[in-house]
Amino acid sequence: MSQLRLTRTMRAQIAAIRDVLTPWGLGTALVNEGPHLVVKVFARDGGAHRLTISCTPKDRDAAINKARQNAKRLLTHLNARAGF
């Protein structure tokens, strides 16, 4: 298995996603799917969801905020499905 080369922006996006999802007990894994780096999120019901990481963002802060918003949106969706 090869090691992924991650930029600071990519690491910050991954950290933002994990900061949102970890307190809820959701597991994450990094997957390199072709040209895209994906954070795979494992839900409590056994489902798996994908959040794509922006590899070449124009603005670092905007990319991090967008990743955080996408994680919050997914968390809202998963909590609604679970009945929370």
3D architecture notes:
By secondary structure, the protein is α+β, with helices and mostly antiparallel strands. Helices cover 44% and strands 24% of the residues. The protein starts with 7 loop residues before the first helix and ends with a helix. The model has no long low-confidence stretch (mean pLDDT 89). The radius of gyration is 13 Å and the shape is globular. The protein contains 2 helices and 3 strands; from the N terminus they run H-E-E-E-H.
Radius of gyration: 13 Å
Distance between the termini: 38 Å
Q: Give the count of helical stretches.
A: 2
Roughly what fraction of the amino acids lie in strands?
15-25%
Largest sheet properties: 3 strands, antiparallel
Low-pLDDT windows of residues = none
Strand order of the largest sheet: 1-2-3
Question: Helix proportion of residues, in percent?
Answer: 40-55%
Secondary-structure-based class equals alpha+beta
Which of globular, elongated, flat, extended, rod-shaped describes the shape? globular
Strand/helix succession: HEEEH
Mean pLDDT: 89
The total count of strands amounts to 3
